[in-house]
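TASK: fixed-backbone design
INPUT:
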């Protein structure tokens, strides 16, 4: 196994500080897609971007922004972690399609069309009825295609996801989810979605979040890697990567914010148990970014060749970003 391979994590939600930046840098990660908004409106999102700009100043020896795919290669050359801004919901654009270009100009490169609930753009995976991509959603997809912002359907419902794949003129991503054949969580994806994603040139990032895993926190590394092998056989080795969905350094109130936002006065316990109000325990083979190479070793142990391990661990995301981050002339 090449221990100097390019490493890319397709999704993390971490309460960053210098110690955690140092951990990510030591892990060998050259790029992380970081969540900078869930339910925030445009003003709150701008505040989050401003805070990240201070991170780039205060921790310039460890991190750098990624606006183009080449920035990931530069981050690797410099021994830094490239940071890709992304939204797990469409709330930052509010009801104005013009915000897509403005936020892209500020560095945002990924946006989910919905987060669990119905949004102005598409249906989330927790709704009983999936009405698909809305009229507004079609216009936003067109604009995201134009400027070079990736459409992410990780938390979206099935019909909406299939319609987004069909409507988008560029391949979409599911940055952090697993196949439902592995574990039937609401957020995991059916064979139908996975095949459509693969056939359209999209990307799936495998999640290590316990609620998306067979046997939860007790999921074994070999089981996870065998699931990756089966998915590669289904949709192709070039269509898969890592999207760990790592959540670190948050208290439980943040988990409530993720699930409940502003849409309910109560608490939506989501995939967790109301009797156990806490973050789920990570599987012991992936406690954080430091264990990226443990996953790579697991892939080797179940029979993946070195070239394919390098694709899964980072090269596939790099190729996808090369195709996705450039704007069009339309």
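OUTPUT:
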């Amino acid at each position: 196994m090449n221990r100097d391979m390019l490493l890319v994590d397709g999704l993390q939600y971490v309460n960053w500080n210098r110690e955690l930046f140092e951990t990510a840098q030591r892990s060998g990660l050259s790029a992380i897609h970081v969540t900078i908004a869930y339910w925030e409106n445009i003003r709150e999102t701008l505040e989050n971007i401003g805070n990240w700009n201070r991170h780039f100043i205060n921790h310039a020896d460890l991190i750098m922004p990624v606006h183009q795919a080449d920035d990931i290669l530069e981050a690797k050359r410099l021994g830094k972690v490239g940071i890709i801004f992304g939204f797990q919901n469409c709330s930052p654009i509010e009801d104005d399609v013009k915000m897509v270009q403005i936020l892209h100009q500020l560095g945002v490169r990924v946006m989910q069309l919905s987060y669990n609930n119905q949004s102005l753009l598409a249906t989330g995976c927790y709704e009983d009825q999936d009405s698909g991509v809305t009229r507004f959603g079609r216009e936003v997809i067109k604009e995201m295609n134009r400027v070079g912002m990736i459409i992410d359907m990780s938390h979206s419902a099935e019909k909406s996801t299939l319609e987004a794949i069909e409507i988008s003129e560029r391949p979409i991503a599911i940055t952090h989810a697993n196949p439902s054949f592995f574990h039937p969580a609401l957020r995991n994806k059916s064979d139908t979605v996975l095949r459509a994603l693969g056939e359209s040139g999209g990307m799936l990032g495998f999640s290590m979040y316990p609620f998306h895993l067979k046997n939860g926190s007790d999921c074994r590394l070999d089981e996870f890697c065998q699931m990756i092998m089966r998915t590669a056989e289904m949709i192709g080795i070039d269509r898969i990567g890592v999207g760990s969905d790592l959540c670190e350094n948050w208290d439980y109130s943040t988990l409530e914010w993720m699930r409940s936002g502003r849409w309910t006065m109560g608490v939506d316990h989501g995939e967790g148990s109301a009797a156990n109000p806490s973050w789920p325990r990570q599987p012991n083979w992936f406690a954080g970014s430091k264990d990226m190479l443990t996953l790579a070793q697991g892939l080797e142990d179940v029979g993946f060749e070195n070239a394919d391990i390098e694709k899964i661990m980072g090269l596939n995301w790099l190729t996808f970003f090369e195709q996705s981050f450039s704007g069009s002339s339309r």
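COMMENT: The mean pLDDT is 94.
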